[in-house]
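RETRY 2/3 - previous attempt timed out on the joint model. Re-submitting the same 512-residue input unchanged.
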Amino acid sequence: MPTPTLTQTLVIALIQAILVVIFIFVIVPLTIYAERKVLGHIQLRLGATRIAGTHTGLTGLVNRSMWKLGKVPVLAYWRGIPMLVGDILKMILKEDVRPTKADRFVFFLAPSLSFVAAVMAFAAVSFVPGTFFTFPKWVPLVGGLPLSGGMADVNVGLLWILGIASVGVYGIVLAGWASNSKYPLLGSLRSGAQIVSYEVPLTLSLLAPVLMSGSLQFSHMATTMATGLPFWGIVPQMLGFLVYFTCGFAETNRLPFDMPEAENELVAGFHTEYSGMKFGFFYLGEYINMAVVSALAAGFFLGGPWLLPFGLQGLVNPYLPAWLGQPCALFFVVKIVLLLFVFIWVRGTIPRYRYDQIMAVAWKYLIPLALVNLLLAAMVRYLAV
Amino acid sequence: MSSPATPFIPLLILLLLALAVGIGILWVSGWLLPRFLKPSNPQQAKLTPYECGVPLFQGSARQRYGVKFYLVAMLFILFDVEAAFLLPWAVQFKSNLATFWVMIAFVATLLVGYVYVWGKGALEWER
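RETRY 2/3 succeeded.
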């Protein structure tokens, strides 16, 4: 295999970056769509499960023209799509209101920061260890070179993800401060304190996979946790997975712990004063963070890109299809999607905690549990390896 | 073309791309689209801070707030530094019983502080 030159490295990196951004901009609207539909079915909300457009306007055009062609309109099959499109259009086209007292630069900086931080955290996630695909020979400049399965599978990947995820807190705190309004300020302080509190058990619970694999590189950790152990990571690390996923809910401000949406106390939390695309960036950042949390959980606890659990990959014999034992980016994405479904499911079923309960859960229960889990992991590692 | 910094090149590229995408979208929706499509109808009441419909009570929101949040931040730094010290240990831990006991001693020392903080009531949100 030829060693790539600097130009080729840069071009491949650019292609990877574009792929990551495309992946994000595909999975986020799909998650929003799925969230509306699933919540609609769980809580009997009538809109998202029924709406198929109208007789007038854009959706009416689609419906009428498809009836004319003698076909049942596509909007009748994919109910809720007009709602998603309306959401996105409204986000882009709504008037941008900036209160006169707001700090102009920081008011603009905060949503960009939370969006960029969320995207950057996705960079260290490796979808499949090794090569994703090799460019065909006819491609100019980069033909014959491999595209690795991770965007930047750096040797401090987990540290990078944790560090960049912490930058997201700045987006929230700055948004509250820049608005120069009381509800956003209180909301951002509460969200900031909550995220900061849950960061400790989050890091402690992620230490267990680090300890069991002896590395911080995402692909190496996923490989070890999926194939190096007799089981998937979730079997010896059930406690760690539960602690991690609970913290994941709190870190992304999702429903049992969603302070920003505690309407009865804080109006809308830190993004009360935001509208239009600036609000949309907070929305995007939240969903990207959900995908990152799911990706870490899928990689470390649910066997990453491997399909077969319990070390059965080694037992695949020539009579079985070969892909059963091979890592595949598709399996990884399916696991991410399943975990995103769990996020939505929990939102539909579990009511919100009170604020003092949220803080008590983090400091009094999750930190001791995470430390016990770490001890457990050290014992497993000591006895098993 | 291989140095220890090579794997970090994509991160730099992604940072630039994410900044470009972010600022681009904000520019299009904040400057370009208002010229053509978006409504722009600023009114004085619309531009005041949101107060649930009540007339503005105090001019500025930049006032003092609960010391509780500072306490949480300080505790966070303590325990996050603990986690940061645990990270290199976790990477290097290879069935090494000696480092295991060292780390138990370290965590136990911190747990004394944890119990003290709990006993003082710093973990209770309302007292």
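Chain B touches chain A through 71 residues (CB under 8 Å). Closing ticket.
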